[in-house]
Amino acid sequence: MALIVQKYGGSSVADADGIKRVAKRIVDARRAGNDVVVAVSAMGDTTDELLDLAAEVAPIPAPRELDMLLSSGERISMALVAMAIHSMGFEARSFTGSQAGMITDAHHGAARIVDVTPIRLREALDEGAIVIVAGFQGFNRDTRDITTLGRGGSDTTAVALAAALDADVCEIYSDVDGIYTADPRVIPKAHKLDVISSEEMLELAANGAKVLYIRAVEYARRHGVIIHARSTFSSAEGTLVIDEKARRALSDLFPQLQGEHMEEPVVAGVATDHSQAKITVIGVPDVTGKAAEIFKIVARSGANVDMIVQNISAAATGRTDISFTLPKEEASLALRALAAEQADVGFENLIHDDQIGKLSVVGAGMRTNSGVSATLFEALSVAGVNIEMISTSEIRISVVLRGDDLDEAARAVHTAFGLDGEIDAAVYAGTGR
Amino acid sequence: MALIVQKYGGSSVADADGIKRVAKRIVDARRAGNDVVVAVSAMGDTTDELLDLAAEVAPIPAPRELDMLLSSGERISMALVAMAIHSMGFEARSFTGSQAGMITDAHHGAARIVDVTPIRLREALDEGAIVIVAGFQGFNRDTRDITTLGRGGSDTTAVALAAALDADVCEIYSDVDGIYTADPRVIPKAHKLDVISSEEMLELAANGAKVLYIRAVEYARRHGVIIHARSTFSSAEGTLVIDEKARRALSDLFPQLQGEHMEEPVVAGVATDHSQAKITVIGVPDVTGKAAEIFKIVARSGANVDMIVQNISAAATGRTDISFTLPKEEASLALRALAAEQADVGFENLIHDDQIGKLSVVGAGMRTNSGVSATLFEALSVAGVNIEMISTSEIRISVVLRGDDLDEAARAVHTAFGLDGEIDAAVYAGTGR
User: Fold this and answer.
1) A103 or A211, greater pLDDT
2) Out of 3.20.20.140, 3.30.565.10, 3.40.1160.10, 2.40.50.140, which CATH number does the structure's domain A3-259 have?
């Protein structure tokens, strides 16, 4: 008998039919002989509706009260799921974050999990019950207050429960049936991966892939939790996210796992990202400490800088240009902050460009395979796409391009790395609700 | 500095405007120098909407899960009220039933309060905060599960908090501005009472008056809590509900409290009730134990019998008729149960009558004043209304009439006991939302 943790998102439990469908899936897992623990999100748009209500009564809602408010969303969905299971003749019990022992720090709205003490869940499992837990919420021991985990909170709840209960697998259900080599809405020939390493998944998620939240993948990697990303609307296997060592061992044992697509799985996937803007600081005095000065100002504005490129200094002027990328919605604050200190820093001008796109290729195989960047640049060159910035990690190469070129560039690169599947992955985009 | 407990019902917090209006009232009480603890119901129709959702996913929802579901309603309203107060510059903290120390038995859906340990509320008050508590919900220590208190639960929460915190008064806000001598929709000349004894209030509530729940009044009476029933939509004083001794002392000290209406306050009010049906069991063998047999059957069907009348036995047949009243919606189950045992009991026939009405006059003064029943019967006789059944308690006389006669009879009786006010109480029915 395995212990399975499942997580269902808001779109999976958006209405009574969705809840009954989810309940049936849970019961099926139980019928197959497994212990089942389930983390659920709030129904559909509940969280947004509650946020709207809060905005109507208070311009800046008190964070403690906002968490109290939002945590009611998962209470509703979890109780309904438990009832639906009950009415199918199975014992089910729902637990709030605090009842489930999800202990967090006191940072309302973005609390970090500091401990998981699932004593009541173990008792319920021992008594043969299916356990339903409110995702997204926790409890601070010092203040004894309800907290919420912030974006991607329910995924994190599921992974944290899987870790604390030493579950065999953490199944994360959504309206997408797994992790693809690229976004199939952009690249119809993208194919679903059977397995991906958590390191690769982290890089893909950090660079535009949307199926799993970075935070949950990170937690899973640190605690050795195996994630299975799959669809609520299909019984097909999804994608296993496991650590790199386990992935390599699996590949050695079951070469067929990679399918014919992946005889040389140097690159696991291609991620595209339209969400960034580029700021170029022109004519920065080429003096030690100037870059630090600039990025201190940007950091104080609250912006999260991604890529940075500094031009080679022009000897004649003693000045250089520094470009960096950041999320589009953070650009105006950063620009304002820099402009306010132009005299102190001594730069000449600021250029803002929100028509860029970022393309990343990710693959653990890069560690041991040279030539990845050559293949990437060659493919882009053949496609006639100009590269504006480059950054690399151990298992990723990212380039900034014109936004208009991004989709075409991604298709060319996907083909160049041998990732194209045999059939179009049209199903990917079509299953959303 | 007084400690005031306030309770706001669902219609008072039905939307953002309502929540802001309630928040302002609470802040006003705080500004006036009081410590304030507030119990709130779920917003508007939230509870009904949650019940509908439950019915969609499970024909008979598991009681534990239903309580988990329903308890989310008050979390939403209390967090919003706390936020709204916060944004007016006052410190407010919301607490769930379990955080507030509302300990109940484990009877899901209709839990009884067994203890109130408001430790966190005292701490918050000591720190200068306004305290907002979820009405209607509690927590069972043994199962560690969330419970709900059932009908009138939020009123009971407020009164129980007032008792545990030794509050000076428990203000129960609704869309009605106090307790009237009768339902002003039926009797426009009904007038608002400044004070009523809890014993009288209990009899009125048990016999059709709707402003306060019996259970909350009973709890208040047992624990010496003073209730002040008043309107969310007006700053006028409402009606104080206090125990009879206190009421008598008050009347002696402040005769003007009773106003000119009540120089002889024998009768406090007239209650009307259209919600009952009458069942008559015809031809019951006049043998010891037959009545017991019949009412055992009725009780097993789940019906709550109110009035009982047994005819004088006809010597010729050795048989008698027994009539009783019960809530209309319980009549069919009771009839079915009786019919099933007709042979055993040996009665001849069953008659069901759902066109009856019940009129009650209530007044603590009855204890020391004779002639109340004479005045009542005389008034009904002058009005040409036939009496079908009579029952009495120490401070109440109830009669069953034709339902069609009830309103006219109530007006006649209200006048006969000198209860008519000088102006129509039209405001009573007009303020609902």
Assistant:
1) A103
2) 3.40.1160.10
